[in-house]
Amino acid sequence: MSKLPNISTSIFTVMSKMAAQYNAINLSQGFPNFPVDERLTDIVAKLAKEIVHQYTPMSGYPSLLLKIAALINTSYGRTVQPETELLVTAGATQAIFTTITALVKNSDEVIILDPSYDCYEAPVLLCNANPVRVALNDDYTPNWEIIEKACTSKTKMIIINNPHNPTGKILTESDFESLEILLEKYPDIILLSDEVYEYITFEEKHISAHTRKKLLNRCVMVSSFGKSFHVTGWKIGYLAAPEYLMKEIKKVHQFLVFSVNSICQIAISEYLDIVSIVEIGKLYQEKRDYFRQLLKDSSFKLMPCEGTYFQVVSYVAISNENDVDFCKRLIVEHGVAAIPISTFYADGKDLKLIRFCFAKDNATLEEAAKRLCAI
């Protein structure tokens, strides 16, 4: 009997498989197709011949942990202890799975804000806990009154994703103030803050949970070098959490993966000495602006994009189809793959919105836009 009877093949897998089948341009799955910084690949090439291929310490390569602590301090003004408050993970998905598995118990409740990324619910279910899906407003702002009403004495965790996938929305100062008030009323709730797109924001500055003093002692922060440095296949992420929570997370981590890819950890440690983290947002803002410019005369309506490398569009002027069928037809008839937003909702809420990934080279974006503008 299945432990996850209602979870089927990921929509990302479905759309990418269809894109390959029909030779469509794949703007569905969130991975860049342009080259990695040569400085980073040169570091990897050099390290390949060095003695760096055995297990690193369970928490992470010591130098990398120091660099992560320095990065958090530079970015957010927060001091973390590398030995006790940081953990290098095999990507953000493993970080999230490990955190939930370590901290959530049988019959606990975990609040997930929809539309939500699909890796949140499965570990909750595997813990024999109960996911409580609460929809954001239709403009993707949180309704804190509704979120608070969903909280009970059984609520163990609230998961936020900021900047938000799939919508590109970022939380405001007011949102964090409301969240802090809510958590004051429920002192046992842990906050899991998924911030994998933290360095990919545009006009509005990303507010990290790292900067909220009221939250630090009860918050687990998730970050991703794969996203930040467009090396998604490396599967390198990291967690920051207070020591009492990190002790529990490490208990699970040591039996799940024990340690993470050694050469990639060491390469990123060296790369952090020479890369400018602020340039990442500039790169993706250029991509976003270029893609939006290419689509401005199309029949799609562009929704706001404040962060991430995803652009949500409305197709209401084109079709009344549900978004899954529209995305499938988009692949088959027009040769472009996208992701339907309804699949991020527990109830399949369909607002006639789909998501494109613009983390692609300009030639790919141009050809995709040409096909989309012809619809």
TrEMBL record:
Residues 24-372 form the Aminotransferase class I/classII large domain. Keywords: Aminotransferase, Pyridoxal phosphate, Transferase. InterPro entries: Aminotransferase_I/II_large, Kynurenine-oxoglutarate_AT, PyrdxlP-dep_Trfase, PyrdxlP-dep_Trfase_major, PyrdxlP-dep_Trfase_small. Pfam families: Aminotran_1_2 (PF00155). One of its GO terms (cellular component) is cytoplasm. Coiled coil: none annotated. Belongs to the class-I pyridoxal-phosphate-dependent aminotransferase family. This is Methionine aminotransferase. It comes from Flavobacterium xueshanense. The lineage of its organism: Bacteria, Pseudomonadati, Bacteroidota, Flavobacteriia, Flavobacteriales.
